[in-house]
Amino acid sequence: MSVASHGRNAETTPLSISIDDSDPAAPLLRVGGDLAFTTAAPLRAAVDRLLVAGPPALLFDFGGLLFIDSTGLSVIVHAWREGQQRGTRVVLRETPRFLTTILDMTGVTGLLARPLPVVTPAARPATPA
After folding, report:
1. DSSP H or E run through 48
2. pTM for this one?
3. Has domain 15-117 been given CATH number 3.30.750.24?
């Protein structure tokens, strides 16, 4: 799947990621540019780093997103899946209309709306010391 907004060519704008972890209970990832096969790895790595701490919420701000493909979408699903295992709710905000449409069409909106399972301390993945 490859969906560009406004008739643009895919992957023409570098991915930008900024992390605001001033609230350890809800770190924020601001994502801009093109989130695609060739650019998604740094975002996935940032998600994994932030989820190690097991925050109650992980926030994504997609206000600057210009393009997403299936690999970019898989990073969102990865964050949700890992968050479910760690008791972290994944929240998207400032989603452009094209991203909202893709999330709805693929069922990801429904995934993100699912309640977190009850995670007991014994069931939490071990965090490295």
Report:
1. helix 41-51
2. 0.79
3. yes
